[in-house]
Design a protein that fits this description.
Helix content is 30%, strand content 34%. By secondary structure, the protein is an alpha+beta fold. The chain has one domain: Gcn5-related N-acetyltransferase (GNAT) (Aminopeptidase, 3-Layer(aba) Sandwich). A seven-stranded mixed sheet has the order 1-2-3-4-5-7-6, with helices on both faces. Helix 1 packs across helix 3. The N terminus is likely disordered.
Amino acid sequence: MALSSTPRPLHVALRPAQPDDAGLLYRWRGEPSVRRHQPLAEASIADLRADLLRHRHDELYRCRGDRYQWIVLVAGEAAGWITVAVSSWEHGLAEIGYALSSPFQGRGVMRSALEQLAGELFANTVLDRLEARCSVENLASQRVLEAVGFAREGRLRSYFRLDGQRVDNFLYALLRDEFLGRAG
């Protein structure tokens, strides 16, 4: 019997981040592959834990609060995180950010995680528009966003400072109707 060369699909799941995940976040935030395209502010484990304590996931479904984090799991193993920052409940606007630990990059993990989260947010909250920004140099992130259905809407010139240099970003957006329309 010949072995299939097709890779087995990964079991990707999400769970709300807990204060005990602060050590994981701290470790991941220090990885060069995570920092390469993101201007992550310095934060201690205690800072990250305090941040996680401030944000309660039950507020999300009551359209309250402004920031939520999930841990991305691959076959039960913590692999990265996704953050959603709500800029306006009234207008249904939020920004999404994400990162994967180096061993899990390039395997389709984040695409699956973002599709799951977008489906959850669009089905169970009043959010209508999810935005994401990524460095124009971050080709992997651009491919992930486009595979999920995010549309590139523009270039944000000199958007942030990374390692002492100004960096352009692309602005992407995913709309509820577009996402739910393609899923159905």
